[in-house]
């Protein structure tokens, strides 16, 4: 009788892992539905202070065709160019 709960637990764990693996393969992320970056949180209050962007790879494509490492780098660059570059999409530029 003790083997019965172990089989149920094994089945539940395997089915959960299978669901997670297959969802990652078949469900593509629609980056167009994600909100635009909130650049205010990356802009330092003191103009003499440089923003310290995290070393995280989450590509952001700008209107100038440049792919930035993440939205922090995009926002800092956008501020330095006086908002002449615009957000295009999440992901690498084509």
UniProtKB/TrEMBL annotation:
Record keywords: Disulfide bond, Glycoprotein, Protease inhibitor, Secreted, Serine protease inhibitor, Signal
Superkingdom in the source lineage: Eukaryota
Record carries keyword Secreted: yes
Any one GO CC term of the record: extracellular region
Tagged with keyword Signal: yes
Coiled-coil intervals: none
A single MF term (Gene Ontology): serine-type endopeptidase inhibitor activity
Domain spans labelled Kazal-like: 33-94
Annotated signal peptide: 1-23
Compartments it resides in: Secreted
Purpose of the protein: May be a serine protease inhibitor. Essential for sperm maturation and fertility. Inhibits sperm acrosome reaction, protecting sperm from premature reaction.
Protein name as it appears in the record: Serine protease inhibitor Kazal-type 13
Record organism: Homo sapiens
